[in-house]
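Hello, quick one for you while I still have it in my head. Could you read through the record and tell me how the tokens relate to the sequence? No rush at all, and the record is pasted right below.
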Amino acid sequence: MLSHRRNDCFSILHPDRIQIDPSCSTTSLFFKVFNKSVPFGATWWGVSFPMAALSNAALKYAMFVDSWLLSTIAAVILALLSIVLIVLFIRTLNMLFTGKWLRG
């Protein structure tokens, strides 16, 4: 039997039961992009894919259900994704022009 373990996004209470924090995916990825303690590299672009998939799914579901609340939530997720993409693009260009991007 597993003891109670806690991760950033989920906690395992039992081998058959995993409790997932619903706000974890977008907010944790959003704040990890702005964390200065983790060195920036090309792999950081991998952060944008799950956020883009979540944004796309949220927008499609909001249009399907036709709910103003879900449309607002989808718009906020899209705004967070846009900010993350802009930050990733600027940091990538900065590393490219300073010569640190292709350094091994």
